[in-house]
Design brief:
This protein is of the alpha/beta class. A six-stranded mixed sheet has the order 1-2-3-5-7-10, with helices on both faces. Strands 4-6-8-9 form a four-stranded mixed sheet.
Length: 255
C-alpha cells in the first residue's frame, strides 16, 4: 500500500495505489503509521510524503466504503485506530515531514497535506474538502488543522461547499508553502531538504513539538510548555555545537 525508500538520510514514503489515484484505505493508514514510526527509529533526518503516478491522494476509497458493514461503535474504533493514529503520528513525529504533492490531493489527501510540516505542490494539483459529497464531515484532522492554517471562515467555506481549488490558491491561503511547475518540484523539495539537513534535527523536533502542543493553550500554559522544551534544548549536543561554532566564528556542523 505504501513504498518506503531511504537515500541520504531522507525517508521517502509513497502512496502506492496509482490505479486508484492513491485512494485512502484503513490499511494505507496503518502502513503509513508503520513507515513513519520506522523513520523516527532510524537515522533519518527528514521524511518526504508523496504519491506514485499522477496523483498524491484521491481521498477515501469510495468502493471500500460502499462494501463496509459495521456498527457505529466499530466505525468509531476503526477511525480512531487508523486515521486518528496517522494524524497524531504525523504531528508528533520528531522529524520534519515534507509533503511533495505530485498531483491531486483531495478529501483526506488535502488534510494529510495540512498535517505535514512543509508542503510543495505542482501547479496543476487540485485540493478540496470533498467529504460532504458523500455525506461525511472532514476527518484526518481536517476539523482542527484546516482552520489553524487557512482561518475559520475559509475553512468553513471549503468544507461546506466542497469546491476544488488549485495549488496557487492553496499557497495563497497557506495550506501549502509553494506551488511550482511540475518540472521544478524535485529541485524545490531537494533545496528544502538540503536546508533542513544543515539544521539540528533534534531541535527541529522540539520546535515542531512546541508549536503543535501550544495550539489552543492558554497563554501562561503555552509559555510554561515553551520554557520546558527550551530547557531540553539547552541540554542538547546541538546547543553546545551551535554555541561553540558561534564563538569560533565557524559554521556549525550538526550531527
Amino acid at each position: 500500500m505504501v513504498r518506503v525508500e531511504t537515500q541520504d538520510r531522507v525517508r521517502t514514503v509513497s502512496f502506492d495505489r496509482p490505479e486508484s489515484k492513491n485512494a485512502f484505505t484503513a490499511q494505507v493508514a496503518t502502513d503509513l503509521v508503520e513507515a513513519l514510526e520506522g523513520a523516527a527509529a532510524s537515522d533519518a533526518r527528514a521524511v518526504v510524503l508523496t504519491g506514485d503516478g499522477d496523483a498524491f491522494c484521491a481521498g477515501g476509497d469510495i468502493e471500500a466504503m460502499a462494501a463496509r458493514e459495521e456498527t457505529p461503535r466499530e466505525a468509531y474504533d476503526r477511525v480512531e485506530s487508523t486515521l486518528s493514529d496517522l494524524i497524531e503520528t504525523l504531528l508528533t513525529l520528531p522529524l520534519p515531514v515534507v509533503a511533495k504533492v505530485n498531483g491531486d490531493a483531495v478529501g483526506a489527501g488535502t488534510n494529510l497535506v495540512a498535517a505535514c510540516d512543509f508542503a510543495y505542490a505542482v501547479e496543476v494539483a487540485r485540493f478540496g474538502e470533498l467529504f460532504g459529497n458523500v455525506g461525511l464531515i472532514p476527518d484526518s484532522g481536517g476539523t482542527f488543522l484546516l482552520p489553524a492554517l487557512v482561518g475559520l471562515r475559509t475553512a468553513k467555506e471549503l468544507t461546506m461547499t466542497g469546491r476544488l481549488f488549485d495549488a496557487a490558491e492553496a499557497a495563497e491561503m497557506d495550506l501549502i508553502n509553494r506551488a511550482v511547475p511540475e518540472d521544478e518540484l524535485d529541485a524545490a523539495v531537494a533545496d528544502l531538504l538540503e536546508t533542513l539537513s544543515r539544521k539540528p534535527t533534534e531541535t527541529l523536533g522540539l520546535t515542531k513539538r512546541g508549536i503543535h502542543e501550544n495550539i489552543g493553550r492558554p497563554v501562561r500554559d503555552a509559555l510554561e510548555r515553551e520554557a520546558y522544551l527550551q530547557v531540553l534544548a539547552y541540554g542538547s549536543d546541538a546547543h553546545e555545537t551551535g554555541v561553540n561554532a558561534f564563538l569560533d566564528d565557524e559554521r556549525p556542523d550538526f550531527r
